[in-house]
Amino acid sequence: MSDTFTTTSRTTRFRFRIRNWELSLGVAMLGIIVIAGLFAPLLAPYPPNQIDILHSLQAPSFSHLMGTDFVGRDVFSRVLYGVRIDVFVVALITYAGLVIGVIIGTVAGYFGGWLDAIIGRVTDTVVSFPFIVLVLAVVAIVGPGLKGVAIGIVLVGWALYSRLARSEMLAMREQPFMLATRALGYSTPRAIFRHALPNLVRSSLVYSTVDVVVNMLVLAGMSYLGLGQQAPGADLGSIIASGQGYLLTAWWITTIPGTVLVLFGIGVSMIGDGLTRGELSMATV
Amino acid sequence: MSDILLRIENLRISFGKDDRRVAAVNGVSLEVGSGEVVGLVGESGSGKSLTCRSVIRLLPPGGEMTANRVLFEGVDVQSLDRDALRAHRAHNVGMIFQDPFSCLDPTKRIGEQIAETLRVNVGLDREAAKVQALSLLEDVGISSPERRYLAYPHELSGGMRQRVMIAIAVATKPKLLIADEATTALDVTTQAQILDLIVRLRREIGMSVLLVSHDFGVIAQVCDRVAVMYGGYVVEFGPVADICNRPQHPYTRALLDSIPTIESAGQRIRRDGIPGQPPSLGEIEQGCPFVNRCSYASDACRTLELSMREVGPGHTSACPVTIGSGS
Questions:
Q1: Can you spell out the DSSP letters for A100-147?
Q2: What Rg value do the Cα atoms of chain A yield, rounded?
Q3: Is residue B258 helix, strand or coil?
Q4: Measured between beta carbons, which residues in chain A are less than 8 angstroms from residue B150?
Q5: pLDDT band per the 50, 70, 90 thresholds, residue A219
Q6: Which chain B residues are Cβ-neighbours of A183 within 8 angstroms?
Q7: Which residues of chain B from 84 to 103 reach within 8 Å of chain A, CB to CB?
Q8: Confidence of residue A282 (pLDDT cuts 50, 70, 90)
Q9: Which domain holds residue B309?
Q10: Is the pTM of this model over 0.90?
Q11: DSSP assignment letter at A97
């Protein structure tokens, strides 16, 4: 199996060919989930919150691909909308955390000294707290809902990126090309953001593939506990929670969104694995 | 030389705090005329690079410099404030470093790196910068510049990268180009090409060059004057032909003697080199730094106050001993 990514510029052409079944499979899995979420309004056969009490708790069939829940809502439609909101929120909060963390860490690493010491202690404090507990505390302040969970995860999530970027910056700072930017009389912000940052963001991007999965689980977990998405809104965690009482009689309500969650996690992890393990051959054509 | 572009007087650079302070450069004086190529030669740790970097006040962390004067076009570099220093680095002095493999930003196309200098330091707009960058690539002898403009540093050979570095350094048409071991990491053929390029650009732009090397062959090839450095001191300074033919300082003499000649090729001649090790930082308290390795040394050398004395027209040496001519 091979995926070929080709970027063409006016006169040179670079071809990145990654031969790696893990990456291919991961891209396929994640791709299907993301596209399903993206086109949820087109794909969903029923409105996600449409109650049809006469057809409640129906097993999967052709009219209801994933069955119906206890008030007759179509689980397939709800999963599509749930994926839509979850993937969007997770991408937003993970990469918001990445951007904030990388900028803070880069600045700390470049300047060092007391600034680095202060930022370092703040990151240590954030990282040493249990993740869930901190998110819960933020939800308690902001109030239940996806917004509260999202703010909580970003407030915690930036810290690891900050550490990562800081340590990369410490090494980057000694690179001759950073010295060259100073010899050329470039400003410090230019040296940091135009030259150092593009070189050190890579490790953070790799780590973000792990982080996306963690954040997805936290988000779904919070919704499951009733702290995230509020009824009647659909989100993978809240759908799972809604089927909990019918686990023995209507397995599909909990099992199917749970499986989607697992597949999302596996897909993202495989992409991360594939990217790090696969041989990346690059040829100038 | 009528016009003096750069004059360094009694430059000292030291590292460390208070009583643990060690001097890396001890009272170096040097001058570069406009349009002149001055060489700095010496072994590792002799303070060549630090001396160069003091011209744009770009010392490694912890380094502290003091000098009577570091005059660049009559302005003391030491007195520049932050903005003036940045402008000085941007416009007056271009610098190329030893390692062409890591001096370019690996994530940016080389053309864009040249254009960046032109936009930031010269103030050209995007289009003009690109046009100018392409002509610079051509100037430094890179074929098919349109294609190379889009290349990343890892796609180029060491010699090509050094050419790009030079293009960036001369983009602002600086008055002084500092080449800090610019050819050391390259093979001999490429080295000769790069030296030719530097000499040609000097003529075209009318800039001066401060060329650092530990290779006397390189220095002799392109320099007008040369300063020989040892242990943080300039031990001999003068016209390059004079120094090569009539080295006055025992260190210069030993250095020249250690270069194999073409006549000696294939013969079983053992070159003795210079016995011993160069002094480590902080080891020299007083007297001549070369005393322990010098075949002319006497007890007086251990306490003597080092000063340059005239040994020929424009030729000074830090050694009081007069050596017979020729080597």
A1: HHHHHHHHHHHH-HHHHHHHHHHHHHHHHS-HHHHHHHHHHHH-SSHH
A2: 23
A3: coil
A4: 9-12
A5: very high
A6: 56, 58, 89, 93, 95, 97
A7: 85-91, 93, 95, 97, 99, 102-103
A8: very low
A9: 4-107+152-262+275-317
A10: no
A11: H
CA distance A45 to A54: 18
Question: Which residues have CB under 8 Å from A111's CB, separation 6+?
Answer: none
Contact B235, B229 (CB under 8 A): yes
**Cis bond upstream, residue B100 (ω within 30):** no
Cα atoms in the Cβ-side hemisphere of radius 13 Å centred on A116 = 14
ipTM metric: 0.84
For position B86, which CATH number holds? 3.40.50.300
Mutation for A interface: B53, B55, B96, B103, most A CBs within 10 A: B103
Domain ranges for chain A, please list them.
3-284
Both tokens of B17, joined, read 């705090």
Question: Residue with structure tokens 């010496």?
Answer: B42
> Both tokens of residue A252?
């599909």
**Token pair 């499979």 in the structure block, residue:** A25
**Domain A3-284 fold:** MetI-like fold (1.10.3720)
In this structure, what are the phi and psi dihedrals at residue A48, rounded to the nearest 5 degrees? Answer: -65, -25
Share above pLDDT 70 across residues of chain B, in percent, rounded to a whole number: 95
How far does B209 lie from chain A, in Å, by closest CA?
Answer: 16
Write down the residue that tokens 């740790």 correspond to: B45
**Amino acid at residue number A102:** V
